[in-house]
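Budget justification, computational time. The allocation requested in the original proposal was used primarily to generate structure tokens for proteins on the priority list. As evidence of use, we reproduce two of the resulting records. The first is shown immediately below.
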Amino acid sequence: MKYNFDKLTDRTHTSSVKYDLRQAVFEKDDVIPMWVADMDFETPDFIRDAVIRRANHPVYGYTFRDEDYYHPIVAWMHSHHEWTIHRDDIVFSPGVVPALSFAVMAFTKPGDRIIIQPPVYPPIRGAVVDHDRILSNNQLIQKENTYLIDFALLEEQAKDAAMLILCNPHNPVGRCWNREELEKIAQICLEHHVLVFSDEIHADLVMPGYRHQVFANLSPEVAKITVTAHAPSKTFNLAGLSTSSVIISNPALRASFSRVIEKMHLGMGNLFGSVASTAAYLHGEPWRLQLIRYLDENITFTEAFIRKNIPALHMFRPEGTYMIWLDFRTFGLDDKTLKSKLIHEAGLGFNPGTEFGPGGEGFMRMNIACPRATLVSALDRLKGMLSFIK
């Protein structure tokens, strides 16, 4: 079956954060919203059908996750990532962002140092500072058209750190850290007894020519110090169903993490999230492959458009995720002015780079998981705005 990713779907008046909060966030309700990391593509039919079938049963009482829920996750990790996990390794979490906080609470104490790698997804920083832990910024190094890890700095920071939060694929710079890079991280963390929380929510959204390396799958020794977060939410556009997996092979770590969830009574989850997750992992591969092709074409289109029409704007081509990291620094605008012009002159809603921490100044993040027509309109607006800046 061929899926239609060109279809325009009206998401207004659905309590959509991305669309229905435009006035609150941008002070305009007619910007093209390319900020929140969900997709403007319809959730695939096989997932909707599964949810509808369950919804047709007239009772939505307390439920639990049976083997039919866990087996597809185990099988997916094996078939897609060559990672052998077991049913008991999987702990439910109502999202990867909550899992970040659960891990900080489970494995560290106030005053502990936690390493993050900015510019990075803002809730990663929040999970540290909101729980009175000390932030240690292992800022990524921009080099030409890519980003690299500052391993010398990481070695120093690891000496007195309790945890590293790894984002792979990295949001927003789009790197899929390769095996050699991850092995260097692992060596440092093993030597200094630093636990690693690996946010791998975009693991199934890797562009052609690249692959995702599961951090915990580097070796049994690395698995013992790793907590991995995974979810179908980004891949299959299910963010509203609050369902994710935290995979922990180390029994002691898994018990500590599970206790935090149990204390807050958050382990039951969402009935329809479980149904959707199962359908996604059982039937989702053909849809996912078509999605990857469409996203890659959107990325290529954006790259060609910018090269031809806005050559002063620098784009970092993502190896994974559907986010594009844009460097506006050559235009000489401060961050406040840049944001204002994008909103009020171009009618575009991007994520300001400053939200992602050090290294984000002068940048914007753009979500290209949308029909091509929407992307074309956004790029035309961007071209029109920037053409007036000398």
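The second record produced under the same allocation is shown here.
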Amino acid sequence: MKLNEISSRTSEWFGGSGPLADVVVSSRVRLARNLAGFQFLSRCSSPQKTQILEKLKAAVMSLDLGDEVFYIGIDKAAVLDKDVLVERHLISRQHAHAKGPRGVVIANGEFFTAMINEEDHLRMQVFKAGLQLRECWEQISKIDDMIEQKIDYAFHPRYGYLTACPTNVGTGIRVSVMLHLPALRMTGQIEKFFAAAKSMNLAVRGLFGEGTEAVGDFYQLSNQVTLGVSEVEIVDEFTDSTIPKIVEYENLARDQLLVKQPEMLDDKTSRAIGLLKNARLISSQEALFLLSHLRMGVNMKRITGVSIPVINELFMLTQPAHLQLNSGKRLEPAGRDRLRAEIIRSRLNQN
């Protein structure tokens, strides 16, 4: 499997389907694990990191996931390839930019990835479209059990799974959802969302995770506490309470816009589709901003003739690294802006 074979398509979990998909773009459950008998990566030599990599690569590649898997050596990958993997959320920025032996195992459908030698020896994740955290947990739990039959994890009877970062000790689980919250921002209520998340010990990050800003009104919401609470409790709290409340608030904000500011709403969505269908130069930031407004307009039935899968496809395929890899050459910013506008015009004017 070559990376450009997946870079020209949308990830299965980013297709715009699933429960509550108008607000909840996707669900992810990640587990952090370390091998018994090895120090954490920050204290490992390069030969030890290689040993960890080979051991975990063999274990994960041998699994029966119901889909073919392929491996990419991140330490040997081209910068553009690493950037594409980050844009597709298959590896973290930290994994892309770290030093030493490291790699990632990816399922062809991109529902599963296993980062080897990121911050921990193993960080595996499962993605699904919409609000499907329980399904993510059930799948990754089975995968975790299969791996544990092949290797021994670093585990303490009292503290649970031992991880490089203390905030992951215990279950080692990170539950997160990607949310699209344009109405909360447009009505000036997004700060309330941030404050509520902070009070509940939840982390809010941008589109590409830790250290990134929210662009296109996309936010990643995840748990911060992993010790003293079970995986099922975390997943159930998110699924039954936390996320439905946020979805309710976003929908109330959308209703508020329809009742009190319909002209502003239609102006923003109409400007968005007008610019996207006609612009000759569009930056990555502007594209995300305009596509966000278009996505809201389609979900609120103010814009017709465009589907959410098409919008999500444009979100992903017009990212800088995707543009360059799919075009087969390095592009300067102006060249990327020109190609991005051309792709968006062509796709939207087909409808």
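A brief technical remark on that second record: Strands lie at 24-33, 69-73, 103-107, 112-116, 122-129, 155-156, 160-161, 173-180, 202-205, 218-223.
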